[in-house]
């Protein structure tokens, strides 16, 4: 067992020993979803004030709304959420490369067969060159989608990994 | 401003006031990623023992490895992670419906244009009928992918929303 797997098992023991919230309902109690980045420096529950059971939390590389659309439709249409809080962040890895750079790294590390699988399954890494613009573009994408009804409230934010602050963009 | 947006702003004030971890590096310090569900009843940091800065956390509806592949490749190939901890959970919404049910709900709530956009952008909601089997299948999918080198350690788990326990499946 790896050290990381041992940590999961040890945490399971301690967390479950004092766990008292086993009767929470499946649909989020506060009917919202947070979409943010997978970045290791973000703890959404603490930084954005999410209590257990209150909100769906979707995370992917760059907090991409395009990538998250399947989860967003399930959250809204099947589980009744009516508000989206989209948070990208300073220092995001997605600001630092272009698609062709990433494809070159896969080619170098994993070879031609991997690149072929990449073109089929990951046609776009969805990097972005400007942070605030990317927040605005993703909010526009959601507002333009027929899959997100106009009654859904959408806001776009930037989390600062340097300060722990979250500021509104749109 | 909505109550949820007010909560984000108020939390930003209090969280940043005592924030002392503004110098964490971009790559995860412990070189691993956790893939789990967006479910509101899961707090990955507390339940799986993830310290700020240690691991990427990817979350989507059902903890789908297929859906997360873009983020996983970025995590491994661009940011150096070498271990995947995949955690699905009891009581998951993805166990409760089939694709045709979800398409029917979108048709009823949002109409034919939305269904047309759905077929184009979300061809599969990726539900699953059996929990442990779905964990095994996703681990197999990752192990079979040329985009995940054999040197990456992969484990599959189930988190119990009723007890707060995380148990190993594969």
UniProtKB/TrEMBL annotation, chains A, B:
Keywords: Lyase, Metal-binding, Zinc
Gene Ontology MF terms in the entry: carbonate dehydratase activity; zinc ion binding
Cofactors, names only: Zn(2+)
EC number: 4.2.1.1
Stretch forming the signal peptide: none
Parts forming coiled coils: none
InterPro entries on file: Carbonic_anhydrase, Carbonic_anhydrase_sf
Positions that bind Zn(2+): 37, 39, 89, 92
Record field: catalytic activity: hydrogencarbonate + H(+) = CO2 + H2O
Details of cofactor binding: Binds 1 zinc ion per subunit.
Role, per record: Reversible hydration of carbon dioxide.
Family: Belongs to the beta-class carbonic anhydrase family.
Protein's UniProt name: Carbonic anhydrase
Species this chain originates from: Podospora australis
